[in-house]
Each structure stands twice: as structure tokens, then as C-alpha cells.
Design a protein that fits this description.
alpha/beta, 129 residues, four-stranded mixed β-sheet, 3 helices, globular, 34% strand
Length: 129
């Protein structure tokens, strides 16, 4: 198998209240999730630049979509500094689990933070500075 450009191609964040979760992500990331139906589930598609390859995903409300703090954590790229995105989390209905922290003593790896969304899922942020 050829090594992929990105290890991750698609993600789904389970939600129990679609409208609340959509409002949360629209507020925190300052963009608009587009609603669709996939495999009978109500989904909110994260924006992906047209013609760009890379990773995208959706929030998903359906019978098998169960929010959890115990599973995998995905990290959203948050521009040059994740602080602005993280500051919107509490006002949107989430909770900061840990603040902006260097990934290691070597600054070139950047910074990360983790929060829980309006549904209780752990979500990470990543930035260079």
C-alpha cells in the first residue's frame, strides 16, 4: 500500500441533539455545517475546500451515534493559534478539559488543547503557536 498523504480521511462525531451540536460547532469554529442525510442519519458536514484533497467529516445523529468521552480524540487544526477557537467553547455550551499546552519541549510540534462539545465528546485542537 502506498503511504497516504493523510492518515485520516473521514470522521464522524456522534451527537444526540443535532440542532444543539450544529449550533455548537458553527459557533466554535465560525463556519456553517451543511445538513444532509447519509445512510438514514442526519449529518452536518464540515466544510472542505472545493477541489482540495484532505480530511473532512460530519456530526451524525442516528440510532448508532452515541456520544462518548471514552473513545478516540480527533484534533482539529485551528490556525496559527488555537486560543481564539478555544475561547468560544464555554459560551457555545462546551467545557475545556485542558488549556492550550505545548505538545512537547520542542516548540516546532505546536500546541494542543482538549474540550468536550455540547454532546459530551472529547475534541482536540492543534496549532503551531
Amino acid at each position: 500500500m502506498q503511504v497516504p498523504k493523510n492518515a485520516l480521511k473521514w470522521f464522524e462525531i456522534p451527537v444526540s441533539n443535532f440542532d444543539r451540536a450544529r449550533k455548537f460547532y458553527n459557533t466554535v469554529f465560525n463556519f456553517e455545517l451543511q445538513e444532509a442525510r447519509i445512510r438514514g442519519n442526519r449529518v452536518g458536514l464540515f466544510p472542505c475546500g472545493e477541489g482540495h484533497s484532505g480530511v473532512s467529516g460530519a456530526i451524525v445523529e442516528g440510532p448508532d451515534a452515541v456520544p462518548s468521552q471514552r473513545g478516540c480524540v480527533m484534533y482539529f487544526y485551528s490556525g496559527p493559534d488555537l486560543t481564539e477557537v478555544l475561547e468560544r467553547v464555554p459560551g457555545a455550551g462546551g467545557r475545556i478539559v485542558y488549556e492550550k499546552t505545548p505538545i512537547s519541549n520542542e516548540q516546532e510540534m505546536g500546541y494542543q488543547a482538549v474540550f468536550t462539545d455540547s454532546e459530551g465528546n472529547r475534541i482536540g485542537l492543534h496549532s503551531e503557536g
